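How a chain folds remains the central question behind the approach discussed here. For one protein, we set the task of working out the structure tokens from the amino acid sequence alone. The sequence in question and its structure tokens are set out directly beneath this paragraph.

_____
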Amino acid sequence: QVQLQESGPGLVKPSQTLSLTCTVSGGSVTSYYYYWTWIRQPPGKGLEWMGAITYSGSTYYSPSLKSRTSISRDTSKNQFTLQLSSVTPEDTAVYYCARDLEVWGQGTLVTVSS
């Protein structure tokens, strides 16, 4: 049974880069046809799809975040990562990693504040 776990700092200062890692267990980030995805939910708002990296390493990004977002993977560690640059307080959210949109991590709150 695949499980995902987000990790990273819970507090980031404005203008800095937010970096989160998703560790996958019980499955492989290179397994065929799966999309390994990042989603976020700001307080009091809905879910926002940020982007994904596929089993082959191709990446896809939300047009609204594309200029600030980078998703990569480390197959040796079975992890994939999110980097969001030039953050502002509006990037404060619970960040989730997911396999496709079927299996989700528990989420991690990231607050952007000085």
